From TrEMBL:
This is Uncharacterized protein. It comes from Beta vulgaris subsp. vulgaris. Signal peptide: none annotated. Keywords: ATP-binding, Chaperone, Nucleotide-binding. GO terms for cellular component: chloroplast.
Length: 686
């Protein structure tokens, strides 16, 4: 480097703070002068190890109005040319677009607007047809504004929402019941035959933006029910469709939307209490098999597999579903522990389809201390990177700086790591951390014992044969070498439980025993074709979720019969009501509760009105067995539903229906029609 360049660098280094690179640990990037013909004399920061690169003068994104940083950085940082930063910029742009609509971009001296606009349009989540630009030279600002909106009001708004609801519900409703049909999902790469309501709902996107908003509301119902109960999504969609239909009809005849919503919610709250009182506890393996079979579309094979798995691991165990390497389906039992905390950031996810983190043979760091700086865990990260093994960190907390560093290096492939905050408080939390450390064969790095994270060695890390982390749970499968220690710890906790006189302490000790002794059942699902495999795995997942829901809250008669019997309770619930709008809201719920049984009967080729009338005059346990084609005691026949599935379907359906009925306007992006192309005429330049 020439003396002139050296003096320039020295001058710039006094005026600007060098940005941190992406190495572990991060270092200050070196300031250099470009000698290329394209950018002669231009200053930039670079790291030779991690390929970090940034021009000295680059743009900083700021929120318009309050001037808070959307993308934060020290002087000289900003739009970097490496892929990791572009990905981060894209996420910041999408988040800012959702919150603000308008963005202000502060441009420093020599930023290339062309490069920035490429990032903005191609990676930022904006489309060129919906973005307007304005460059204010005097203030050196560049504004990006969201495109025009289409606004729909009153009845037109609600009618368009209902049209979207109907289109999605029509596609999903054909799958309801034991004789429901399949739906084919096709895209440019694959073809799937599906009988799962939430999967079908998520795949639907309508061309009309307002109608699509209605469909998205129903997708929200399906997702909420699926997350809370694991099954019953199709029934929930049928309920909310009927509530919206009858509710909009009532509004047309002059009912007040707010009064309707109030009456609907009051009715459902009372029905939930009745439902909980009427539920029956799961009695044994036969009930488990019946619940699983019904949830899987009357697939007795799936029911038998689930019953076998739960019989081996108990109600405190965990079931995971994987793909078999053969066409056979089998159950493998593994010991493991499940804790009620998930990953701290979705950036750690390794399986995008399931939104889970999945590690094999992972090292495990267990501590009750907060990790404040990257330097504390750098030796452990370097060691796991050398061994090419993932690292699970279970800690009290972790600073934002450490979290961001782990995410950046995970995206670059430097380390494979995930962070989980330990649940609980006080002594219960420390006891759980001790159990995790024992199960993985590692040391519990407790601050009370004077053990520092920065002084920890790789020998103090535990090892887990398999780790699965969702957004709210973590499952750890222990290494076989720790079986003896686990048994000894369980025996010790059982002695403490026998000697305990405190009900609270006894409950906590029982939970620890369940976590340590609860095994993990791995169901290896096999099939002859990919299409059959996908369908069978979805059925198995629904059956698993429904089974655990049934063991938690009990069972009720299936086939839509429970909803019909609940509808008969509405008269006594509303006997003292005087508000006509609230009474109309209760009547909306009454009519909606009849819809699932009608549709199950219709899909089986039977008149739904006749089925409903017979069930209404029968006892609580009596309903229609659509598979056998007769009325009978559904509990004795094994036609049962988990109480939680029935409850969640009703609760989330009335929640979304109330939102739609009280909606007065909707704003959606207005699609701009492309300008017609100018025909090319030889010799003439348009």
């Amino acid at each position: 480097m020439s003396s002139a360049n050296s003096s320039s660098v020295a001058c710039l280094e006094r005026d600007f703070v060098a940005p941190k690179c992406n190495c572990i640990p991060p270092k200050n990037a070196k300031l250099q002068i470009s000698h290329s013909q394209r950018n002669p004399g231009r200053a930039y920061f670079k790291c030779d190890f991690c390929q970090f690169f940034a021009w000295l003068h680059n743009g900083h994104l700021i929120k318009r109005g309050d001037a808070a940083d959307v993308m934060r950085g020290e002087e000289g940082s900003g739009v970097h040319s490496n892929d990791v930063t572009l990905v981060q910029l894209r996420e910041d742009m999408v988040a800012a677009k959702q919150k603000l609509g308008d963005l202000g971009v502060y441009l420093r001296d020599s930023v290339k607007i062309g490069l920035f606009m490429y990032i903005l349009l191609k990676l930022g989540g904006y489309h060129s047809s919906s973005v307007s630009y304005k460059y204010l030279r005097t203030r050196n600002r560049f504004f990006v504004r969201a495109g025009p909106k289409k606004i729909t009001f009153d009845s037109k708004c609600r009618e368009a929402l209902q049209a979207g609801v109907n289109k999605l519900a029509d596609a999903v409703s054909v799958t309801l019941g034991p004789k429901g049909r399949n739906v084919i999902l096709s895209d440019s790469k694959s073809l799937k035959v599906i009988n799962d309501g939430v999967t079908i709902a998520r795949a639907i996107e309508l061309a009309d933006a307002v109608e699509n908003a209605g469909a998205m509301l129903i997708q929200e119902v399906a997702s909420k029910v699926n997350d809370a109960a694991g099954d019953g999504t199709t029934t929930a969609i049928i309920l909310v469709r009927e509530m919206i239909r009858t509710g909009l009809l009532a509004i047309t005849f002059g009912a007040n939307p707010s009064g309707l919503r109030r009456g609907m919610e009051k009715t459902v709250n009372e029905l939930i209490q009745i439902l909980k009182k009427r539920s029956t506890p799961v009695k044994g393996r036969d009930d488990i098999r019946a619940v699983a079979s019904i949830s899987a579309g009357n697939d007795d094979f799936v029911g038998s597999i689930l019953a076998e798995a739960i019989d081996k691991i108990g109600a405190d165990g965990v079931i995971t579903i994987e793909t078999s390497s053969t066409s056979e389906t089998s159950v493998i039992i593994e010991e493991g522990m499940k804790i009620d905390k998930g990953y701290m950031s979705p950036h750690f996810v390794t399986n995008q389809d399931k939104s889970t983190v999945e590690f094999d043979n992972a090292k495990v760091l267990v501590t009750d201390q907060k990790i404040s700086t990257v330097q504390e865990i750098v030796p452990l990260l370097e060691k796991t990177a050398q061994l090419s093994v993932p690292l699970l960190i279970i800690a009290e907390d972790i600073s934002k700086q450490v979290l961001e560093t782990l995410i950046v290096n995970r995206n670059k492939g430097v380390v494979r790591a995930a962070v989980v905050k330990c649940p609980g408080h006080g002594d219960a939390k420390k006891a759980l951390l001790q159990d995790i450390a024992l199960m993985t064969g590692g040391d519990f790095l407790s601050g009370d014992l004077g053990l520092s994270i920065g002084d920890a060695t790789s020998d103090q890390l535990g090892i887990a044969r398999k780790v699965t982390i969702t957004n709210n749970t973590t499952t750890i499968v222990s290494d076989p070498s720790t079986k003896a220690e686990i048994r000894a710890r369980i025996l010790q906790i059982k002695k403490d439980l026998a000697a305990s006189e405190s009900s609270h302490l006894s409950r906590k000790l029982a939970e620890r025993i369940a976590k340590l002794s609860g095994g993990v059942a791995v169901i290896k699902v096999g099939a002859h074709t990919e299409t059959e495999l996908e369908d069978r795995k979805l059925r198995m997942e629904d059956a698993k979720n429904a089974t655990f829901a049934a063991m938690d809250e009990g069972i009720v008669p299936g086939g839509g019969a429970t909803y019909i019997h609940l509808s008969e309770e509405i008269t006594s619930i509303t006997s003292s009501w005087e508000d006509t709008d609230e009474l109309a809201g209760a009547d909306i719920i009454r009519k909606a509760l009849l819809a699932p049984a009608k549709l199950i009967a219709a899909n089986a080729g039977v008149d739904g009105e006749v089925v409903v009338e017979i069930i209404r005059t029968s006892d609580w346990q009596i309903g229609y067995n659509a598979m056998a084609g007769r009325f009978e005691n559904l509990l004795d026949a094994g036609i049962i539903d988990p109480c939680r599935v029935t409850r969640c379907g009703l609760q989330y359906a009335v929640s979304i229906a109330g939102l739609v009925l009280t909606t007065q306007a909707i704003l959606v992006d207005k699609m701009r029609k492309p300008k017609p192309s100018v025909p090319h005429v030889p010799g003439i330049t348009p």
